[in-house]
Amino acid sequence: MTPLRLVFSLLLIISSISVAQARTVWVDDQLYLPVRSGAGSQFRIIENAVPSGTPLEVLEVGDSYTKVRTPKGTEGWVSSQYLSNQPIAADRLRTATRQLEETRTELNQVSEQLATVTEERNNLQNSESSLSNRSEELQEELQRIQNIASDSINLERRNRELLEDNQRLRNDLEVLTAENERLEASKDSDFMLLGAGLVLGGVLLALLVPMLKPTRKTDNWA
């Protein structure tokens, strides 16, 4: 193995160890936790008053001390007995309270959404009922229009039949009028012929009557 590959492999191993150790711990329920320059109480304090609940990044774990990095960026050693693998009770309570408030807020939002959906559903049901009633009204109106149209068609047909009957009656009346006029003319002609015949008969009778009277004989004794 070449020196370059060896160095590269060592760097990978060191990086893997660093990543594996890069976890977070929290300062336990203490008023403050001093950060020292070494793993022991004899080393000087490089950062005071790290409050309880402060998250610390673990860099290295010793026997009774742990090397950490504070939120300020200070790297040092703290006593492992004052570290916890989970947030302190107060922080957990605050987190739980915040989550509870968020849950309540979400629940209120869901309740409002449910109320909105319920209202929309009721509105849709009312709209559906209104549309159903309107549909029935339109059906009745359509039926009435169809009846009117049917009556109009029947009335038009009846009117046409009456017009045809009227025309036939007019034609018959014209025929009867012409026949009556012909009969009247024939009657007048017959009366004229009868009158002429009577006049002629009277004349003939007047001529014949004197001829039919006997002639008086002359009295010889006169």
TrEMBL record:
The keyword 4Fe-4S does not apply. It is found in: Membrane. It is a single-pass membrane protein. Residues 1-22 form the signal peptide. Keywords: Coiled coil, Membrane, Signal, Transmembrane, Transmembrane helix. Residues 90-186 form a coiled coil. The keyword Nucleotide-binding does not apply. Residues 20-87 form the SH3b domain. Its main location: membrane. GO terms for cellular component: membrane. The chain crosses the membrane at residues 191-212. This is SH3 domain protein.
